[in-house]
Amino acid sequence: MAAIFNLAWIFLKIGFIFFGGGYVLIPLLHRIMVEQYQWLTLREFLDGVALSQLTPGPLAMLATFTGFRAGGFMGGLIATIFIFLPGTVLMLFFANRYEKLRDMELMKAALDGILPAVIGLVASAPIIWAPPRSALPGILSCSSPVF
Asked: 77, 96, 107, 118: which has the fewest C-beta neighbours closer than 10 Å?
């Protein structure tokens, strides 16, 4: 049961920083899922990213895949709910207040501060997409010429 609470807590935190689309999360998800908790191997992570491109809400579905691998059906359900929960709650909260908040200097400054972070995260995503040779056996060690 502690593992399910841990999944919920981790994906709730990820959901709070889920700005700028799924590609922003690749470096963070890689660090958490592959390196820190070892819920996925690098190959499984890359496969999960590839599979998630076939579904609506691309990289967010990687949460379902990881949750399932880490905690079965309940883990997949919890990870999916908790990665979307913060954005949903924040959207509902700000939807009625947007007209009042959009002209506030503090809100403008906050959004201007988020932009460089999002750009940095997107720019770091190719580092994760360039896996070591061990993740793609056979492709880089092909003995026949490509031509």
From this structure: 96
Q: For helices 42-52 and 60-95, what crossing angle results, to 10°?
A: 60
Contact 14, 83 (CB under 8 A): yes
Distance CA 48, CA 62 (A): 6
Q: Which residues of 27-49 are buried (b: 16+ CB within 10 A; e: fewer)?
A: bbbbebbbeeeebbebebbbebb
DSSP track, 98-138: HHHHTT-HHHHHHHHHHHHHHHHHHHHHHHHHS--GGGSTT
Would you give the end-to-end CA distance of the chain in angstroms? 55
Q: Token pair for residue 138?
A: 């056979």
Average pLDDT over residues 124-134: 63
User: Where are the chain's structural domains?
Assistant: 2-130
Half-sphere exposure of 49 (CA within 13 A, CB side): 21
Q: Is the pTM of this model over 0.85?
A: no
